[in-house]
Write a structure and sequence with these properties.
The protein has about 325 residues and is mostly helical. About 80% of the residues lie in helices and about 0% in strands.
Length: about 325
């Protein structure tokens, strides 16, 4: 009976993941225009599309390496293959509110190593902070080297770096969690988990961990931004690489600030507005935005959906073998 219930729940999870993916694609195409997007896709060759997806894979793989470095710093005995499976499989739940679905990675670690999620929660905190650090640094560099400024760009870059820094300071983060609990007075277990996670943050500030993980994050995210630049050029737009990088990362951070899953809606709106502001015609800005979001965010979710059942099944097998 339990086996039947587990099988039934897995079917529903698969249906939910596929529905999320499909609705996301429909939503982004509807928001940016079906006709323009389809026509732009038609103008891209298979080689160009492969390059876009390949650069996204570069991003995912460098972030997998970063995740592996973090797990090793916490003395979690997992191979690079296992950590890659966990990290990519977690992408299936990126479109959940606040990306909380990605916490599934901690459950897989628990099953395979016995390390409970309340002792590994700092992995999620530092991974989010590392993305903010990488994106904030690249945005700052892009703004500094671009001849065209983005209003508020420096503010967004600096704020992202400040938030990332605060999120990885154990004492400051613990104090913020305590203040949040005293203010809201709800979800006591959640706030308790955050306090325990804060205790494990110190290990990630060591230069042997901080330097290579920051480099991995910057390489990975730069790859996706270069794909954005190449896409605009292929569609006939005229833009410099620093300006394209600044638009890409400013839009990402703007989308994240909305709190919506994956920055959906906010990121697209900012990207289209900035592209048109820098004299990219709307007939290029609309499909370019749709295509880059499909080949980055939604491609990641597709990869996650493919790997999710393997990560789930293998983690259960390791649990049963223990």
């Amino acid at each position: 009976m339990n086996r039947f219930r587990d099988s039934n729940s897995k079917i529903w999870i698969s249906v939910l993941l596929f529905a999320t993916f499909l609705l996301g694609l429909i939503g982004i195409a509807a928001a940016t225009g079906w006709q323009e997007t389809m026509e732009a896709f038609g103008r891209l060759t298979m080689v160009q599309l492969s390059i876009l997806l390949g650069l996204s894979l570069v991003n995912y793989l460098f972030r997998c390496i970063r995740w592996h470095i973090y797990t090793r710093a916490m003395d979690i005995d997992l191979s690079l293959t296992s950590n890659t499976r966990h990290y990519l499989g977690g992408f299936a739940l990126t479109a959940t509110p606040g990306r909380v679905g990605e916490l599934i990675r901690l459950r897989w670690i628990w099953r395979e190593t016995g390390r409970r999620p309340d002792s590994t929660g700092s992995l999620v905190l530092v991974d989010r902070a590392a993305d903010l650090t990488a994106v904030g640094l690249i945005l700052a560099i892009a703004i500094a080297t671009s001849t065209a400024g983005i209003q508020g760009g420096w503010t967004v870059a600096i704020l992202s770096l400040i938030v990332a820094w605060l999120a990885t300071r154990p004492m400051l983060f613990r104090a913020a969690v305590t203040l949040g609990w005293k203010t809201l007075g709800i979800f006591p277990r959640f706030f308790a988990m955050l306090r325990r996670a804060a205790s494990g943050l110190a290990v990630f500030s060591k230069p042997a961990v901080l330097i290579p993980t920051t480099i991995c994050g910057m390489i990975g995210w730069t790859a996706e931004a270069i794909a954005f630049y190449m896409l605009i050029i292929w569609l006939g737009g005229d833009i410099t690489l620093p300006t394209a990088l600044a638009i890409f990362f400013f839009s990402m951070l703007s989308g994240s600030a909305t709190g919506l899953p994956g920055g959906i809606g906010g990121a697209e709106a900012a990207m289209i507005a900035l592209l048109t502001l820098f004299d990219i015609p709307l007939e290029i800005a609309l499909p370019a935005t749709a295509i880059i979001r499909i080949t980055t965010l939604w491609f990641a979710i597709a990869v996650g959906i493919i790997l999710f059942p393997f990560a789930e099944r293998l983690s259960i097998r390791r649990l049963n073998e223990a």
